[in-house]
Amino acid sequence: MRSEDWQRVEELLDAALELGPRERPRLLDEACAGAPDLRREVESLLACEGRADGFLGAPALAFSADFFDDGNPADGRAGQTFGPYRVAREIGRGGMGAVFLAERDDGEFKQEVALKVVGRSFADAELRRRFRQERRILATLNHPNIARLLDGGVSADGEPYLVMEYVEGLRVDEYCARAGLSTVEKLRLFLEVCRGVSYAHQHLVVHRDIKPSNILVTADGVPKLLDFGIAKLLVEEQPGEQTRTELRAFTPEYAAPEQVSGGQVTTASDVYSLGVLLRDLTGPRRLAGEMENIVAMARHEEPARRYGSAAQLAEDIHRYLEGRPVRARKDSFTYRAGKFVRRNTVGVAAAALVLLTLAGGVVATVWQARRATEQARLAAQERDRARREAAKAERINTFLQNVLGLSDASWVSSNPNRNREATIADVLDEAGRRAEAELADQPEVQAAVRFTLGWTYKTQSRLDAAEPHLRASLELRRAALGSEHQDTAQSLVGMGELSLLGGKFDEAEALLREAVAIHRRARAAGDVNAKWFAISLSDLGLALTSKGDTAAGEASFLEALEVGAALTGADRALMAVVHSNIGATHRERGDLDGAIVHTQRGLEEYRRLPGEPRWEMAAALGNLAGILTLKGDYDRAEPLARESLDVYRGTVGEEHAYPPRSFAALAEIYYRRGDYPRAKEEIERALAIQQRVLAESHIDFARSWIVLGKILTRAGDPARGETYLRRALERRGRGLKPGHWMVGEAQGALGECLTARGRYAEAEPLLAESHKNLDAALGHKDPRTREARRRLVTLYEAWRKPETAARFAQP
Amino acid sequence: MSGELQHEVTQILHDWSGGDRRAPERLMPFVYDELRRLARAFLSRERDGHTLQPTALVHEAYVRLIDQTRVDWQNRAHFYGVASRMMRRVLIDHARAHVTDKRGGGAVRLSLEDVRLPARQRAASLVALDEALGRLAEMDERKSRVVEMRFFGGMSDEEIAEVLGVTTRTVLRDWKKARLWLYRELSSHQT
User: Fold this and answer.
1) Any idea what the CATH number is for the domain that residue A139 is in?
2) Which residues of B touch A123 (CB under 8 A)?
3) Residues A68, B94: C-beta atoms closer than 8 Å
4) Do residues A157 and A256 share a domain?
C-alpha cells in the first residue's frame, strides 16, 4: 500500500475507533462511498480489534529466552556492575561462588569491598524476601573482629550478591607461622576470634563455617572473621533438601558431627569448630593437661556437653592463661535459654525479640523493686507496691522459663512436624496457650504477657490471633487495675489499633478516645506515660481522619506532636508517623504543598531513626508519591512508590493490608502516563493481595476498584470498568461521610466511564455532584477539582453542548 | 567496562544532541555488542519468561555505556531508542538461528501471544513480525518505530514520545493501529 492510501485508511480507522461498533457502519457508509477497497481495508483492521488484545502484550525478550543457549560461559566479570558496585578483579573462589574485589563509587567517596556472587538464582519471590530479611539481621553485626556485611541485592542481570567489608590480611594459620607467635600470643589472638563469635551468637547468628581461611589477620594483628552467617543465608530454607544443602556448606575437617550428619546446626556447632581451630593453632601434639581438656570439651560429640557459648570457651582460656583451674559449665536458667536458642535456629531472632520484650519488663520491675527496698524510709503503701512488683516479676520470670524450657519431648510431640524447627509462631502460640492457664491466679501478670503477645501478633498482621489476647488484657486490666489505670489505656490502644487495621473506625474512635481521656487525667495528676499518651493521640487522629473528620484528626495529631516532643531514640519513630499523618491531612483538604512539606519532615525523621527502615516509613513514602502524582510529577513519584513497596517487602512483607496501596499508587502513575498494560498489572497485584488479606468489606478495595475501573474505561472495556466503579462508589458512600472528597473521586471516575459509554444523561448528575464535593472539600484549584471540571467539559462536548462545556472550561 | 569506552559512547550521544546525524549509526555497534552480551548472561540464567524485562537489559546497557553524570533525560530516551533497534536486531539474529521451517504455519500470530510455545514457532513468529515491521516502515515509518521501542525496547510511552517528538496520546494511538495492522498482516500472510 502506498503511504497516501494508508493515510486515508488511518484517518478513517481513527474515527471509527472512537465510535462504538454500532455507529461504525454509518461512518463507513458515508466515508467509503465509491471506495470499496478502502472500506474492506478498514473493516478488516477493525475486525482484529478485541482479538489483538493479547498480541505483543509480553515484551519480545520474553519470547526469546531460550534462543541464547549456546553454552558459552559468561564473559569475564571485571567491569561488571552489581548495584552501585563495580568489579575490579577476582580474589577468591569457593563452593558458594566467586569473590571479587569491587568498588563502590558514589562520586563523593570510593570504597573497596569484597563482593560475593551467589551462585544461585532467586526466581522465587518468597526466597528473595527471606534472603533480604536474613541479610538485614547479618548487617546489624558490628564488631571489630567481624568483617561486616555491608550490602547485598540482586543485580540487574538477576544475580544475587553480597557485599562485605574488604579485609586485607593473612589467613590466621599463615599469620601465626610467619609472625612466629608464641603459644600465649596465639591464645590471645584466638580469644579475639572468640570475642567476634560470641558477639554474633548474642545476636543469634551462627557462623557455620569457622576455619582458618575464613579468618584473616590484618597488618595491625587484628583477626577478622569473614562470611559470618553466610553459609546459612545461602543454603537454608529449602524444605526437603535441607540435609543435602547443609552438606555443601561446611568444611569437613572443621565441621561439628551434627553438621556432617545433617542435624541441627547451632551456636554449639561453632564452638566445635573453634575447638578444632584452637587445636590446630596451638599445635595438635603439644597439647597437654588443661589445654587438652578445653579442646576436648569444645569438640565434644554431643552439642549439649560442649561449652554453652564461645564466651564460656574464652573464659576458660582466660583462666588457663591466668593459671586458674578450668571451670565446668553450670546448668542454669541462661543455660536453658541458650539451649532453647541453640535448638531453634529458625525464627529464633524474632522469638527472642518477643521474649526480650517480656524480659525487659522483668528487668525494669525488678530494678524498681530493688531500688524501692533500698530506700530506708518507705511509705507502707509503696512498700506494698514494690513487693507486688517483685512478685509480678517473679511470675513473669517463671512463666518465661516454662516457655523457654519446654522439654525436647513435649515440644516435639506437640509439634506435628517432627524435626521442624520452632518458629516465632510456634513460640507465640505456645506462650498464648500457657498464659491463660498458668497465670490464671495473677491477672495483672497475665494481662501484661497477653498484651505483649497480642501486640506482637498484630505487628505480624495476624489480627485474628491478636484479638483474644488484647481483649483479655483489656478485660483483666479493667478488673484488676480499674478503668482509670494507664495500663488499661495501653490495652485500649491495642484494641483500637486492631479496629483501625480492620477498618472499623467508629469502634476505633471510641476505644482510643477512652485511652486519651485516661492519659489526659493522668497528666493532670502529674504522672503521665508520655509515649503511650502520644501513641493514643496519634491513633485517634488516624481513626478520625479515616472517617473523614480531617480537622479533628489534625488537632489530635498536633497534640501528639506536643506530648511526644521529648521522646528520644527509637521512640522518635512516633514523631515521624505523626508528621507524615499531618501531611496526609493537608492532602485531604487540598493543601498539596503543605502536604509535601509535612510528609517530607516525616520522612526526614524516619531516615534519622536508628536501625533498619520501619514499615511506617513505607506509608509516608507512598503518601508522598501519591501527592506528587496528583501534582503531575510522575518522575519523582514513581521511585518513591517503588521505595515504599521495597520497605513494605522488607518489613511487613507483601501479604499485608498496606503494600497494595503502593501497588495502587504505581498503577495510578502508569495510568496517568497512559501505560495501561502496566497499570493493569500493578492494580491486579494489589487486588490479589487485598482479596487474600483484607476483610471483604474493607474500604481499601474501593481505591483499587477505582484505579482498575479507570484503566478499563480507557483501555477498551468500559463496561467492566463501570461494574468496578459502581462497586467503589457504593463502598465509599457507605464508609465515609457524605460529601467526602473520596466519594467525589469515585463519582467522577464513574461519570467519566459513563461519558465514554455514551450515557451522557446518567453521567451528568454524577459529574456535577463530584465537582461540587471536590470543590467544597479541596477547593477550586486542587488538581482533583480541576480534573472534575475537565470531566464535565468532556461530557458536554461529547454531548454537543458546547455552551455548557464552556462554563466549566479551565481559565 | 573501561572508562575510555564509556567516555567515547557518551561523547557520541552528545554529538547526537549537537546535531550529528551519523551519531545513531556510530552508537549502534557498541550498543549491539553490549546488549548481546547482557542478553546472553541474563537469559541463560532466567528461564521463567515472566521475569524478563527488556527495560532492565536496556537500562543496564545504558548504565554501562554512558556516563550518566553527563547526560540528561532526553539523551537517555534517545539512547533507549537506539537500544530498542539494537535489541530488535539481537533478538531477531538469534531467532533466525532457530527458524527451521520458513513457513511458520498459521500459528504465527498466536505464538506472539503465548511465551510457552515451542522455540521453533516463536522464532518463526518473531522473524515474520520483523519482516512485517519492515513493510509497515515502508508506508509508515513512525508506527514501526513505536512498535520497535515498545515491544523490543520495553520503553514507556513518554520516552517514545520524546524520541519521536510527538505527544503520548499520539504514541498510544499509533501503537493501537500498528498492532491491528500487524495482527492482520501476520494472520493473513501465513494462512
Assistant:
1) 3.30.200.20
2) 46, 48, 51
3) yes
4) no
Is A506 in the active site?
A: no
Query: Alpha-carbon distance A583 to A591, whole Å?
Result: 9
Answer whether residue A19 is part of any domain. Answer: yes
Q: Find residues 96-115 of chain B whose CB sits inside 8 Å of chain A.
A: 97-98, 109, 111-113, 115
Q: Are A221 and A311 within one domain?
A: yes
Long-range contacts of residues A131-134, Cβ cutoff 8 Å, at least 24 apart: A131/A160, A131/A233, A132/A649, A132/A650, A133/A650, A134/A229, A134/A232, A134/A233, A134/A236
Mean pLDDT is lowest, of A383-397, A450-464, A612-626, for A383-397
- Decide which of A458, A481, A508 is a domain's last residue: A458
Greatest pairwise CA separation for chain A in angstroms = 113
Question: Tens-digit pLDDT profile for chain B (191 aa)?
Answer: 456 778 888 888 888 878 788 888 888 888 888 888 777 766 654 443 334 566 667 777 777 787 767 777 677 788 888 888 888 888 888 888 777 654 444 445 555 666 566 677 778 888 889 999 999 999 999 999 999 999 998 888 888 998 898 998 999 999 999 999 998 888 765 43
Q: Which domain range does residue B71 map to?
A: 3-190
CB atoms within 10 A of CB B158: 18
Number of domains in chain B: 1
Helix (H) or strand (E) holding B159: helix B157-164
Q: Which three cell numbers stand for residue B169?
A: 496520546
The answer to whether A603 and A580 are in contact (CB under 8 A) is yes
Residues of A in contact with B45 (CB under 8 A): 121, 157-159
The reply to whether A644 and A767 lie within a common domain is yes
A17–chain B nearest CA distance, Å: 9
* A177 plus A321 within the same structural domain: yes
Are A121 and A185 in contact, with CB atoms under 8 Å apart? no
Amino acid (1-letter code) at residue A580: S
* Cα of A86 vs its chain's centroid, Å: 28
Cell 521512640 maps to which residue?
Answer: A571
Instruction: Tell me, yes or no, whether A29 and A151 share the same domain.
Output: no
A292 and A381 together in one domain: no
Spatial distance between the Cα atoms of A273 and A254, rounded to a whole number of angstroms: 5
Q: Are strands A170-171 and A149-154 parallel, antiparallel or unpaired?
A: unpaired
Q: Is residue A253 part of a domain?
A: yes
* Residue A55, in any domain of the structure: no
Judged by CB atoms closer than 8 Å, whether chains meet at B45 and A52 is answered as no
Instruction: Give DSSP secondary structure letters for A746-764.
Output: HHHHHHHHHHHTT-HHHHH
Would the CA dihedral through A748, A750, A752, A754 be positive or negative?
A: negative
- Does the residue A152 lie in any domain? yes
Identify the active-site residue in A151, A209, A700, A775.
Answer: A209
Q: What is the nearest CA distance from B189 to chain A, expressed in angstroms? A: 14
- B168 in A contact zone (CB under 8 Å): yes
Q: Which residues of chain B have a CB within 8 Å of the CB of A52?
A: 179-180, 183
- Does A672 share its domain with A755? yes
The Cα–Cα gap between A585 and B180 comes to 46
Please give the model's pTM, rounded to 2 decimal places: 0.41
In this complex, do B47 and A45 lie within 8 Å of one another by their Cβ atoms? no
The domain containing residue A119 runs over which residues? 81-165
Q: Tell me the C-alpha distance between A741 and A738, whole Å.
A: 9
Q: A56 vs B151: CB contact, 8 Å cut-off?
A: yes
Q: Minimal CA–CA distance to A270: which of A334, A215, A217?
A: A215
Q: How many CA atoms lie within 13 A of A470 on its CB side?
A: 24
Domain count, chain A: 5
Q: Do B180 and A52 touch (CB under 8 A)?
A: yes
Q: Chain A contact for B116, CB < 8 A?
A: no
State whether the Cα torsion A696-A701-A706-A712 is positive or negative: negative
ipTM, 2 decimals?
0.83
Claim to verify: residue A722 and residue A664 sit in the same structural domain: yes
